[in-house]
Amino acid sequence: MRQMDNTVIYLLICCLEEAIKRNGDIKLAAVPSKVAAMLTTSGVSRLFEVFHTPAEAVTSFGRLTAGTFSPAIAAEPSGFGTESAA
Length: 86
What we know:
Blueprint: H1 6-21, E1 27-29, H2 33-42, E2 49-51, H3 54-60, H4 71-75
Parallel strand pairs: 1-2
C-alpha cells in the first residue's frame, strides 16, 4: 500500500476488530514511511505491531509475549459478583 486515507484506516480498524472477536491479531509488514507517518498521525499505529518484513510478522505470531492472553488465567474467578456481608 503506497497511500492511505481515513477510509483505509477505518477498514484496518474494522479488520482488527473482527480478528480480535475471533481471538486473532493483525500485524503490518513492510509499511512505507509515508503510510507509517499517516498511521502515527492518526493515532492508529499503537493498535498494530509493525514489522520490517512479512517474514518477521509471520514469525511474531509464534512468539509469546508478556501480554499474551491465557485461557487458564481467564477461567479463574475474578471476584466479580462476590459480596461480603458486613
